[in-house]
Write a structure and sequence with these properties.
The chain is an alpha/beta fold and 198 residues long. Helices cover 33% and strands 22% of the residues. It binds guanosine-5'-diphosphate and magnesium ion. Guanosine-5'-diphosphate binds next to α1.
């Protein structure tokens, strides 16, 4: 059963004018392309193919708004993964992200999806920068934990935690084994229902 039975896709936006009305509460999901963001969203919402896994042509560079419940949204932010992404596209992405983080009054937190085997990348540091600029809490899912041995996974978590210090909370996650799904959902709920700010 879905934990969000009313969850549905609302719309995609390529410019601030296309963002959905800035009311209620929303949590943004970010991740370098191929990190496992769509898979993580599907597990947390508990619906197969909710945020399509892998490339959905056209949608990957857009801000995708989903409704979880009345006045509560999940926002799937665009990612990129390769150094050869054209400068023009990267600038458009950075402008769109800066606009999004600066203007969204309803934004309550960010989930940053990181492949545990890669640790934090330049992309992740940029996202952490956007969040820190506006004082947004961040929760990191170290996903694909199933790909590492237990000891390696524990070490990777400690390293990321040390690097982030107080900038974010961190947990192990696996879309394959569903490791960490309850912890992730609890953090999502905490962000969505947080009222003591803005
Ligand atoms: N083993 C393993 N593979 C995963 C996991 N999460 C995602 N993947 C795989 O990684 C690839 C990219 O996942 P996707 O969710 O599309 O990444 P996105 O580009 O960040 O949305 C796909 O082949 C997924 O099946 C995980 O937790 N464990
Ligand atoms: Mg995806």
């Amino acid at each position: 059963m879905s934990h969000y039975p009313e969850a549905q896709f609302i719309k995609s936006a390529n410019a601030p004018g296309q963002f959905v009305a800035d009311v209620g509460a929303e949590v943004a999901f970010a991740g370098r392309s191929n990190a496992g963001k769509s898979s993580a969203i599907n597990v947390i919402v508990n619906r197969r193919q909710f945020a399509r896994t892998s490339k959905t042509p056209g949608r990957t560079q857009l801000v995708n708004f989903f409704s979880l419940r009345e006045q509560q949204r999940l926002v799937d932010l665009p990612g990129y993964g390769f150094a050869r992404v054209a400068d023009k596209m990267r600038r458009h992405w950075a402008d769109l992200m800066a606009d999004y983080f600066e203007m969204r009054q309803s934004l309550r937190g960010m989930f940053l999806i990181v492949d545990i085997r890669r640790q934090l990348t330049e992309f992740d540091r940029q996202m952490l920068g956007f969040a820190s600029t506006v004082g947004l809490p961040v929760h990191v899912l170290l996903t694909k934990t199933d790909k590492l041995k237990r000891g390696q996974a524990a070490t990777a978590l400690l390293e990321v935690r040390r690097e982030l210090n107080d900038a974010a909370t961190v947990q192990h996650f696996s879309a394959l084994s569903r490791l960490g799904e309850d912890e992730a959902r609890a953090k999502l709920e905490e962000f969505l229902t947080d009222t003591d700010e803005q």
